[in-house]
């Protein structure tokens, strides 16, 4: 689509105003749109209406106002937010005003979660109460445990996680606006707070269960006397040792820093899903299931898993140039590189590089790190990547750390989604507390067939069955031992 730029009027002849003037050349109508916080409301454009031009499709709805088309939300702000700020050009990230580097060095995950959700760093007694509540909401109902246990041994842990949260909605009828009234979370803030601590508390338990199913071991009950990440490691790894067993505190600390780094990242794919789904006022468990499903994809939280598969496929340093050539020919994607918002550097990837060394000191150096370093160095010197402003993102290093710590590959996205729940809940709460919640309902631009009349099947032209219309080459398992052939 061509973007036309009008020749600029010198600002010296204009008194600067905080607005833009848009002239609809179809009608000559001009509108002034106020700029607030360097943004304009897309709804302003719906004032621009015109009669249908000759031969124009009625589906364009031209007399009903101009639509703003922005596939994949490249330049559309979905919310006004007080939670997280990213300066993509400078590679800067802050939560509620605090730079991520300071939080990673000085805070803890639970404290950062409180900051994100409630807006300020907690006082000592607030922090104690907050941590106590979360660590005392870690138990999962027995019948829900049984349901989770029924999942197959080879289930992807993210599908277990998503299913468990979707099911939790059925276990909390008092928290369900569909049953209790649509204004439940507008009116009842203590109930909202309770769901927040329940979700954060149960997340690590469900995550550990997803892992224990994989290794075919019984679930380990949570321990409320441990820190958030210590308890996760405990529930994953406790076997026949005495109950006083504790995970390595250095790894619990490293994981806590990783959790801080992953706690929020404003309107990414999954958090915007949380806001989108939450705008319908459905219960928060269903919202978390939907947001987690969005995170599971390889272009989002699944990237850390994809990075390791990619590095393993490259195998050794001498294969790096060939692989990069394939990326440049667009036959491969360089997972863990690039970002929609960051254009210089991802500040999280710098901190995470230091955590990697902390973990390697305990667990030994991950052999794929040599390939990762050679690949990163070669890509950062290559014009293809520099001209497109592609550099390592958080997922490039996090996967190597998780691998060094011995987590299975498909568990990596779980280690991303558990901390990201703080961001989901902060945005869910902000939306419902704003008093301005409206259901998210994007527009579309219809480019399909115009109106036509139904033709009965016998009167229709015969059409070949192809892969395009969906029914060709669908693989079926058919036993060779059947009497009747299909
Ligand atoms: N490898 C190779 N080429 C790339 C990559 C990559 N990782 N990322 C972008 N490009 C190319 C892309 O092909 C395009 O080239 P051209 O101009 O020739 O068509 C150009 O760079 C611009 O890319 P884009 O597709 O417009 O970028 P985007 O903002 O739509 O996508 C992204 C952002 C993160 C989805 C993408 O960079 C990507 O697919 N990266 C790999 C997956 C990944 O690491 N995801 C984790 C993101 S960070 C954590 C999170 O949010 O979950």
TrEMBL record:
The keyword Transferase applies. Pfam families: Citrate_synt. Pathway: Carbohydrate metabolism. The keyword Transferase applies. GO terms for molecular function: acyltransferase activity, acyl groups converted into alkyl on transfer. Keywords: Transferase, Tricarboxylic acid cycle. PROSITE patterns: CITRATE_SYNTHASE. One of its GO terms (biological process) is monocarboxylic acid metabolic process. The active site is at 339, 395. Belongs to the citrate synthase family. This is Citrate synthase. It comes from Lipomyces starkeyi NRRL Y-11557. The lineage of its organism: Eukaryota, Fungi, Dikarya, Ascomycota, Saccharomycotina.
